[in-house]
Amino acid sequence: MALKQTRISVKTEKGPYFVDITELVQKEVRDYTNEKGIVNLFLTGTTASLFINENEQNLLRDINNLFSSIVPQGSWNHDKLSFESNAHAHLRNIITNSSISIPFDNGKILLGTWQRIFLAEWDTRNRTREIIVTIIF
What we know:
alpha+beta, Jelly Rolls, five-stranded antiparallel sheet, elongated
């Protein structure tokens, strides 16, 4: 078993904002032909998250509406102490994922037909996000 670690930087806009990062991840494993393994993605930050789902605009609107109803932007305790009023972004991170793992085979990530990998930006401003990519093969 061996591993390689790299980083991906992704620019986001003020949240909620969803970025399909599937091709960026695929690019990281494409040279591992004749290999089977796992690619782990770890997002450094507490106001964004990672998820796998379909890239369909109405579904992404539904995801946004779901999170807006479960964790609305508003008067959370953290907002009283912070100039950013971004407690909702921290809370949305808690109920989603900062890390996901995806198998790959012969240089291709093994996602289902409609599955895509997303970075969800929940924060109240544009950001550049860092994802640590660990490839285990």
